[in-house]
Amino acid sequence: MLSTTVSDSPAMRVAIFIPSYGDGGVERMLVNLAGGLARRGVHVDFLTRSAQAPYLDRLSKEVRLIETGKTGLWSLQPFLRQYLSEARPDFVLCGKDRAGRTALLAKRLWKADFALIMRPGSTVSERLAKRNWFKRWRAYRLIRKTYQPAAAVVGNSEGVVRDVAMISGVPDARMHLIRNPVITPDLFERAAQAPRPDCFGDSAPPVILGVGGLRRQKGFDTLVRAFARVRAARPCRLLILGEGHLRASLTSLAEELGVVGDVLMPGFDPDPYPSVSRASVFVLSSRWEGSPNALTEALALGTPVVSTDCPSGPREVLRGGDVAPLVPVDDVTAMADAIDRVLDAPGDRAMRQAAVNEYTVETCAARYHALFQSLLDARGRGNGH
Question: Which residues make beta-bridge pairs with 93?
Answer without folding.
Answer: 16, 117
